Amino acid sequence: MIKNKFLYKISPGIRTKLSFFTAILVVAILALTSVIYYGQQKKALEEKIDSELRAPLEYINTVVLDLEKLSRSLILIEEFKIRIKEKQAQLSKFKRKVTQKETGFFGTLKSIGASLGLKVKYDYKVRAVDTYYTRYLSPKEIQDFESKVKNELRKENGAPIEQLTYSKLTTIAKKTAEARLAAESFKIRLGEIDEESKAAAEELSSKDLDPKRTKELETLKGNLEKERKLSEKSLQDSERKVLAGEANMVRSLQNFFKGSYKDRISSLGLLPDKIRILAFNRTGKQTLDTGLLFPQSSSTGKKLFGFSEFEKNKDELFQRDKLLISLQEKTDAENYEIAGRQYEVVSRSVFRNLNTAERAKILTKEIQNDDWEDFLSRDREVSKEISNLTEKLKVKLDELKKTGKLKPSADPEFRGLYSEYKRILKKRETFLYELSPYISLKKENANQWKKEKDELEEKLKNLSAELSQLQKQLKGSKPKENSELSAEEIQEKIRALEFQSEEIRDSLQSMILTKDDWTQYDENKSEDAFFGLREAALDDFAFLPYKTDSSSIKRYWKSPEERKQIRAKWKILRDWIMAGESETEIPKQTKNAALNAGILVRSRSEVEELMWNLDSTPFVIDHEQEKGLVFDLLNKDHLGYNLIILDRTDGLREIKRNREELLQYTAVIGTFAILLAYGLAWVVVRRIKAIIKKSEEVGEGNLKVEFPLSGYDEIGVLSESLNNMVTGLREREELRGELIAAEEIQKRLLPDKFPTNLNGRVEFGAFYKAMAGVGGDYYDFIELEKGKVALCIGDVSNHGVGPAIVMALFRSQVRSILRKGERDLKKVLLELNGYLYEDTPDHMFITFFLGIFDSNTSRFDFISAGHVKPLLFDSSERKLMELPAGGSPIGMDDNDFFATTIQAKTVKLESGDFFFQYTDGLDEARSPDGGLYGKERLHKIVGKSLGKSPQDLISAIVTDVESFTNKEIGKPGLSDLTDDIAMIAIRCR
């Protein structure tokens, strides 16, 4: 029964709780559904925009690269024109002078006269002629190159560019080329100034320098320092002019191609009102804007421009000293909300030469792997060897230029140096494939591929054999197996097997075709990046492709034939450089499509200088500072960024509208569900309240209550169960009364007072508690002749009323035998065993301890029949010990065997000695967590309480057991013990 009626009144009932739970459930479902729906809609929107953006973005990248290529080509043409004039002046000193006999009309006449025998005097002229070292790209080659570039400058209708427009472009290109060449000359002069300043400083440091020379050197240093500052300023001005010229060129080209780009971008499905793409070069100058192509796109993202956070993030792209950090940190989209509109901005890096840049990007990740350190170390050693060798080659080429008599290819020393060069390159390549950390992985992949291929071939072979057998069976020959199949079933099985065979053949064909496809194998791409980075950079420098191809690197990884072509081109390029046969012409290779896909735009000497630089620069010099060939090439090829501005406002608003509608519908459904739950709860609670009312009557003691049976649902089952419970309670209460009466009867069988025939020489103590009111444990003190007393304690197997009856009969038999005068303890037990063995079931037996104390002689005779060992405290030695026990329990075996197991013992109990005996329910008492009370704990509590009287000692043990078991055993009534407990104790005074 609930004691606190106030809390019962104010506490929420089942109706409130069920309604609250329903509300929580509805809200949770609503929230979860809303989140999932919003996420799915947003993801769908992103996927849709991404799919719509992919093709236009790829085209924009191509446009940026095309504009850059055309801009570079036009500037390069003007640069070549200027260089040709400069080279003619620079290389004229390397022309060889020859003496030539007079020619022309007068020369012919003199030759005729000489043939007739006349004495003729010829005039001889000295003339300078070109050698290998005085040739550069010819004006004709530049004109051919210019024609091809000009042919790409066509209007949207296919018409060629107007001459006036082309002249404007060439004017911009010429100014830019002049600025670029000026910047190069200033860089060269700054290097010379450094060398001259260093030489002057070294000479000034000598001690025996005369004052005049000292003054000259100090003046020279001052002049060089002034020239340095002037050159640095001029270099900066020239570089600014180059950047401005390149940006102006790209803008002019963009305006020229504006119509073509607009039509192409529209055909690719770009949504101008939702997406705007802006291209920037590395300095932050804008080179392309789709907002200028489409009027409706000009307002897309317009609110972003001038927004401080957007401008700050955009500027950070162009202020980074380290490209890798920029590439790594600017990959995620940035979101902005301005004036109620939602914008997403994504930046993508754009690279000039994708073949070089993609390899460099792969290597930036690979070089972070310590497994490559051995190869990188060897690469640094090889680079140093090549650097030393290139110095010798430079000296040799300078010598050949001065004489001008031999081509480099005709000089043995030149050929020998390049033979050594090739050997060193071959050594570097060997190191790559020997020290690669992917050797074992590539072998595993190859073995796995072969294993899968063999398995498929074996399956195909087995299927073919089975097909052949079925086909024979179908034709009428006797089958060895499956003879029970009909013709239709055989045909069906043949079709199924043919289908499986075709699938396996397709899988085999696919495996064979994709065996050398590197697209999915990063280890192959990594090794190729190390092998091909220098080659690709050299290729990009020497050749200008006719057409920008952003997918060339993907084809290279995918197709072994493409790799073969590209690598053959690389070899041809290096062979041309190292052969020294021609400055401007590569041997024609009609079968190499890769070689014929572009135009050679550098002389052999220019490409040779870059080759030396590439081969002598290690991949990595300092990873933290981003120094080394990998970083140099990545920075060099980095053109800038594409910024994609996505206006997601309309899409997100639509999603929010849909979500709000979902919320409204869910709210209506939720409200209806709550009301329905409340009504249903009211019906259920009404029945439960009737049960509660009846339960309260039971709690008040009325066991004649009957719960109403209503239906066959859970509440009806509960009512029936409660009725059964009340019936059980009535029966248990009746049994409880009977047990209490039985307990009272059993107590009367126990001694109601301690013996008084020992003249006060002995103190007694005793305790008994049954597990279920009545039990099978038993103790007794029996007064014998003057000065003697018998002590008994026993434990009948099992618990309850049956053992209690056996113990009552057993008590009577013990007292009867002792009153007859029998004092031989062994005979007493044999007689008891005889009675019990014959009159009780096999599973019923008694452990029993019997002792007789003679106060006249202090002699204590005792015997044990399977009972626990008693405790004795010897006051003279101040020692607590266990007395011997043992023997078989009474009633377990016949007397012939029983007699062999028991034996009487004798001890002296002097003044102060303490004797204690108990049943096993004491040391086997259990704590709430299942632990045993145990003998060790019992011995400790007995040892601590020896100064007390026997009854107080037993009380102390009872208190300790109650503390250990968390159960009350000292009070009258039923207990929760797991076994009966009995204890007796005596102390001699």
From TrEMBL:
Keyword Hydrolase: yes
Xref: InterPro entries: Bact_Sigma-Reg, HAMP_dom, PPM-type-like_dom_sf, PPM-type_phosphatase-like_dom
Cited SMART domains: HAMP (SM00304), PP2C_SIG (SM00331)
GO molecular function, one term: phosphatase activity
GO cellular component: membrane
Annotated Pfam families: HAMP, SpoIIE
Residue span of region Disordered: 202-223
Signal peptide start-end: none
GO biological process entries: signal transduction
Coiled coil: 439-507
Hydrolase recorded as keyword: yes
Domain HAMP: 682-734
Transmembrane intervals: 20-39, 662-685
Keywords: Coiled coil, Hydrolase, Membrane, Transmembrane, Transmembrane helix
Protein's name in the database: Guanylate cyclase
Native species: Leptospira perolatii
